[in-house]
């Protein structure tokens, strides 16, 4: 297989974009932030509009919509290798909301517990714990990945108090994949559960939570639909029913009770207990269409193609004068994301030139992973604060590819980047 040829399924992948020198076909390299939208997902969305109605009321339209909505839970479990007899998928707006639900649940379990997170996390997988409980960060080792010695020493140090270990399934900055199955084995050995943030995983490579009786089983995962080609709100927290049924939700309102009067509340079982208010039915069903498309193409095929794109991109980027690529020799990079800086040119300038002069949309700054970017740039807290205070800020330029990007787009980008590095004008 040489090319997946998926561009034809994407809306707006080649829409002309205005630049300082005229219109050019757009190059979208910011898939980590949000992906462009799959046509089949939008077609599903549009097909629902004429029959759109309330869920769970007696009408044939409602039956169709309710069935598609509820079946999305099975699609999610299939995608992440959850156990339909033990795990449930709770619908959320996005992964941030899902992780806040998880943090709230663990907080109820033991407010004085210690959560082990890592320096590599997006803030969505750090702040929900940090603001509720003592949260310790596992260091990044010499090899650029999670320092397993530091992890074990923290498990030892806080033995008995660590109930949750939380780690990303792939970095949104460098594409590094942490050893989450090894971390799961260790977490379980020390009596803790593990959450893997699969928001940068499910659209790139096959993932499984593994069976519950496996030592490397992943207890919880969460993701966002808009990063998996749906373009709309929608996401999920997946975890064990028996555990989740014990706690109260993050949000309260209608739909979460079986019975209520002025003297008592009987809560619904999960997932309903965690889904207060009217759900984003259309968003959820559109997410289902996007996830089914990914499974149909095959995550293994997507992975294979994207790894080729990544290798080509990395090799070409190394030729750009005065470039600093973060973790360019890492054997752990598993998704096609590269963060870099050009010596002597601010990340903001490089990003603006790429976007405004060449129509290449990319990510810039701390890209939501402030602690990790600070670490990659080797900045102390004082230096980071000084950069913030001075208004200069600190950060990287990030290229993040998706399944529909092409080698030709990479060539165009490299040509633009070389011109920027050498101070040449765009045309
Ligand atoms: C690794 C990771 N986790 C969580 C999030 C948060 O995703 P969302 O804003 O869709 O909730 C992001 C967003 O970029 C991310 O990259």
UniProtKB/TrEMBL annotation:
<dbReference type="InterPro" id="IPR015421">
    <property type="entry name" value="PyrdxlP-dep_Trfase_major"/>
</dbReference>
<dbReference type="GO" id="GO:0031071">
    <property type="term" value="F:cysteine desulfurase activity"/>
</dbReference>
<comment type="similarity">
    <text>Belongs to the class-V pyridoxal-phosphate-dependent aminotransferase family. Csd subfamily.</text>
</comment>
<dbReference type="InterPro" id="IPR015424">
    <property type="entry name" value="PyrdxlP-dep_Trfase"/>
</dbReference>
<protein>
    <submittedName>
        <fullName>Aminotransferase class V-fold PLP-dependent enzyme</fullName>
    </submittedName>
</protein>
<dbReference type="InterPro" id="IPR020578">
    <property type="entry name" value="Aminotrans_V_PyrdxlP_BS"/>
</dbReference>
<dbReference type="InterPro" id="IPR000192">
    <property type="entry name" value="Aminotrans_V_dom"/>
</dbReference>
<feature type="domain" description="Aminotransferase class V">
    <location>
        <begin position="27"/>
        <end position="413"/>
    </location>
</feature>
<keyword id="KW-0663">Pyridoxal phosphate</keyword>
<keyword id="KW-0032">Aminotransferase</keyword>
<dbReference type="GO" id="GO:0008483">
    <property type="term" value="F:transaminase activity"/>
</dbReference>
<keyword id="KW-0808">Transferase</keyword>
<dbReference type="InterPro" id="IPR015422">
    <property type="entry name" value="PyrdxlP-dep_Trfase_small"/>
</dbReference>
<dbReference type="Pfam" id="PF00266">
    <property type="entry name" value="Aminotran_5"/>
</dbReference>
């Amino acid at each position: 297989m040489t090319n997946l040829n998926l561009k034809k399924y994407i809306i707006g992948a080649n829409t002309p974009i205005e630049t300082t020198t005229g219109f050019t076909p757009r190059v979208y390299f910011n898939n980590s932030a949000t992906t462009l939208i799959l046509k089949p997902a939008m077609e599903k969305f549009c097909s629902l509009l004429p029959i759109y109605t309330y869920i769970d009321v007696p009408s044939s339209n409602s039956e169709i919509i309710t069935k598609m909505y509820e079946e999305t839970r099975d699609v999610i479990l299939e995608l992440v290798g959850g156990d339909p007899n033990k795990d449930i998928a709770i619908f959320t707006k996005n992964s941030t909301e899902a992780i806040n639900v998880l943090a709230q649940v663990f907080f109820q379990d033991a407010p004085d517990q210690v959560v082990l997170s890592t320096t590599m996390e997006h803030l969505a997988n750090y702040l929900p714990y940090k603001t509720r409980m003592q949260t310790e960060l596992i260091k990044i080792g010499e090899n650029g990945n999670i320092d397993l010695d530091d992890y074990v020493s923290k498990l030892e140090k806080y033995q008995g108090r660590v109930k949750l270990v939380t780690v990303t399934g792939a970095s949104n900055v460098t594409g590094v994949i942490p050893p989450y199955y090894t971390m799961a084995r260790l977490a379980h050995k020390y009596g803790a559960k593990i959450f893997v943030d699969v928001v940068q995983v499910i659209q790139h490579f096959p993932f499984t939570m593994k069976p519950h009786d496996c030592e490397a089983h992943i207890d919880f995962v969460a993701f966002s639909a808009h990063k998996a080609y749906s373009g709309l709100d929608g996401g999920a927290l997946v975890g064990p029913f028996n555990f989740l049924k014990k706690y109260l939700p993050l949000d309260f309102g209608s739909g979460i009770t079986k019975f209520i009067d002025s003297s008592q509340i009987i809560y619904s079982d999960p997932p309903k207990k965690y889904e207060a208010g009217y759900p984003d039915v259309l968003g959820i069903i559109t997410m289902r269409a996007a996830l089914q498309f990914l499974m149909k193409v095959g995550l293994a095929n997507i992975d294979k193609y994207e790894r080729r794109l990544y290798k080509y991109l990395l090799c070409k980027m190394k030729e750009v004068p005065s470039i600093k690529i973060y973790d360019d020799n890492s054997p752990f990079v598993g998704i096609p994301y590269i963060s870099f800086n050009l010596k002597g040119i601010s990340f903001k300038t490089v990003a603006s030139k790429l976007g405004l002069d060449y129509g290449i949309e990319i990510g810039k700054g701390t890209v939501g992973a402030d602690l990790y970017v600070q670490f990659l740039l080797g900045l102390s807290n004082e230096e980071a604060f000084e950069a913030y205070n001075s208004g200069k800020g600190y950060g990287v330029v990030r290229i993040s590819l998706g399944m529909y990007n092409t080698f030709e787009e990479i060539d165009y980008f490299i040509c633009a980047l070389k011109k920027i590095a050498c101070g040449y004008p765009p045309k």
